[in-house]
Amino acid sequence: MRARHAVVATNAPINDRYAIHSKQAPYRTYAMAFSVPKKALPDGLYWDTLEAYHYVRLQPGTGQSDILIVGGADHKTGEADDADARFLALEAWMRNLLPALGKELHRWSGQILDTIDYAGFIGLNPGSKRTFVSTGDSGQGITHGAVAGILISDLILKGESPWMDVYDPSRKPIKAAGAFLSENLSVPKNFAEYVAPGERSSWDELKPGEGAIVRKGLSKIAAYRDDTGNLYLRSAACPHLGCHVHWNSFERCWDCPCHGSQFAPDGTALNGPAFSPLAEYKP
Ligand code: FES
Description:
The relative contact order is 0.15. The chain is built from 4 helices and 15 strands. The protein has 2 domains: 1-173, no CATH class; 190-271, 3-layer Sandwich (Rieske Iron-sulfur Protein). The chain is globular. It is of the alpha+beta class. The strands form 4 sheets. The protein has a 5-stranded antiparallel β-sheet. The protein has a 4-stranded antiparallel β-sheet with strand order 12-13-14-15, with no helix packed on it. It has a 3-stranded mixed β-sheet with strand order 1-8-7, with helices on one face. Bound molecules: FE2/S2 (inorganic) cluster (FES). FE2/S2 (inorganic) cluster is lined by residues 238, 240-243, 256, 258-261, 273-274. FE2/S2 (inorganic) cluster (FES) binds next to loops.
């Protein structure tokens, strides 16, 4: 395919190995939906500034009930695997504030990419003349998606936009430099895992549905046993830049803590920046 301009809107850009990914960090967030009596809470979008923070929104329901969505309890991707405890904490926080909260309907988790100043990276890809990116939604994906549609089309058609500096993917805000440095400590920390022991001494210990990292000589293997007993062995080295993936037992996937790539239990790439699978390991 040939085009004068390209827009890479793949959540985490797959066209860029370093420039963007060293300025944003992946976080896993948790969310639950509950039934709630209509008018129990004024309609609105709520969030707090606690560490870890919470967000709440209402979805119109049928009959006498609405659906309340509460989320938060985030952690840096791959640095925790305790979803049940986080859901318990979310529910307790919400019930304490809203005793009328009804029964749980759904629970899920997702990944967000936080930038160093929480504004998205929307505009010309660093170093490019005709390739544009939209990424780093920082939990504001619907807003940033609308901004990207307007801003990038203006850049292509008119060569400028009133918001181009605010969202410029090449910006380096000085005020956020401390946060930028501390977020990126996860990369050297992850590379230290090359010499650390595995989580299990052998994949024979895995029960159906379990995944874990197993050391084999100098290599680390991402091992998963499916519900029918089939074993999947893949290299634990992420094909993006080589960090080690971590098992996510709630979503049953391999998460890369460095820049947020995700892989299915069989190693298939699910989310960028990596777009090739975890390499197969043959014992
Ligand atoms: Fe960059 Fe895995 S996502 S090393």
